[in-house]
Amino acid sequence: MKEKILLLMIMFATIVSCSEDFLNTQPKDRSIASDVTWADPALSQAFVFNIYSALGNAGFEEESLASLTDEAMFTHAGRDINVLNEGTSSPSNLGNTRIIPTWGELYTVIRDANIAIEQLPEATFDDAELKDRLLGEARFLRAYYYHQLLRYYGGVPIIDRTYGLGEDYSIARNTYEENVNFIVSDLEAAASLLDGKELTDGRASKLAAMALKARVLLYAASDLHDATTATANSSVLASYSNIELVAYTSGSQSDRWNLAKTAAKAVLDASTGYKLDLSAPVSAEEGRANYNAIAMGGGSNAADPAGKSELIWERTHSPLYTQPGEESSWPLGGIHQGINNGPNGYHNWAGNTPIQLLVDDYEMMDGSKFDWNNPTHAADPYADRDPRLYATVLFDGADWKPRPSDVVSYDEKDQVQTGQYDDGAGGKIAGVDTRQSPVEDWNGSRTGYYVRKYIDPDPAVIDNQSGAQVVPWPFIRYTEVVLNYVEACIETGDEAEAVAWLNKIRYRVGMPAIADSGSDLVDRYRNERRVEMAYEEQRYFDTRRWMIADQTLGRGIKVMSTDATLKAGATPHSPYFHDKSVYDYTYTVVDNTDTETRTWDDKMYYRVISRNEINRNSLLVQNPGY
Question: Distance between CA atoms of 504 and 290, rounded to whole angstroms?
């Protein structure tokens, strides 16, 4: 009797090679005989493509990983995000399971990858090059999903084969070191198999395998994963009797940093990023345009297509959806980043809004720190700042897109309104993008800001319930690898090299060169990584592996209150618009505990393993602190 494999099949009318068509097909549930699947190149390819499907919308889901960091807060209560940010998660209360992929979801797709890895070498279709490519993709994807498990949970059981009915599914967790070695082995095999293969947007490549290897080795070298430094800096980790599950217990951390440095440099030598060959800063205007082009990734008519050169591996999106306002189930077609996160005064939902802690960390244009104790800074906090701020955050008075026709009467200038404005009669007018707005106030920002990054600025892309954009999500981009290399250089004492590469990033966005050293260089690098990679799912992991999360998430949420008072003798604008010649603006930083009261507990370095998973597998050991 033929073995049956249940496939979430993505069927092709033809085998496509055009990047725009990758995974742009409709799913069908079918049970297909194994020997038929692996005898047919189209079916074999469809099986491997289905392994990609677990990537979902990548970082463009409605709830963002940024809202589990000091980048953002999620506007809407009732999503169990507070469970994660207040340290109250437990084996029976995981909190929000939409932001972070679950243990079960990841192991389900790893099983699919294992099937492909077992079957492809014996596949009977004749195209050897396609076999190698699909096998390379399956090895890469298995490595990626294990890397997800590793960075959320620490060492997990390594399952590299398929299990049959009736087998004992109990298996102990492998050590952190064993997991790293397994992932690196898969990625090296993937790089070899994918060498010379055609590059297709969204699909794994040799360079993507090399870049993911560099990231994995960077994490492995970090303080959180060295038993000596981890236990010295955390009483929770020091009391954990299975520290080998989350950290190296032997070997040299210095050697691990050198491995990370070598791996990152190999990627830099094999490719180039976007405008990283400059010898001096560009203008502030050009710097902002450059950063926006990178964020658009070539996926917007308003973007410089060259920004696409930053992408090493991305989740592509197409403009197709089944009905207005409705995306197909897989692939997801256009994404609703603008709807999910834009201002309520555009009929958007204000999902993951920036918090003051992020805004404050953007430097002044001269490279000095922003300081609320500086009267000039405090009087006009959005003036003369790092151009990346303006390409990442929408603040009160920022120019944005044309308003919907039913909102124009409140704002004729297309400016974001997140403040309270003097009406000239002793009262205040609430900005149309606030929680006191006459337009969908329940969707107003709680922080005084909205995210701009990854929202297509093209006025033709309508960010409301009928619009979708096609901006790709960057799983790995070239500048991340540059930053990984910089960090490894700092840790191995090669400060001149670190500074040279940091300045390449800064020149591209119009920021001046730095010349820091020692602990000042570490601080500068970490801040550079913070603002450059904002909203890119880096901060969550960075602050943990650096073991500084108590100083970041643990600070709670600070937000902006903007108040405009009429100057003496001035007449208020009706409808209101931002005008420094008519109004005096006061900016006040306040604490916000509306939907969560953030705290830090060292158990939050790792995700809790659910009680259901432990009941299924009696050999599982729980993570520290739970």
Answer: 13
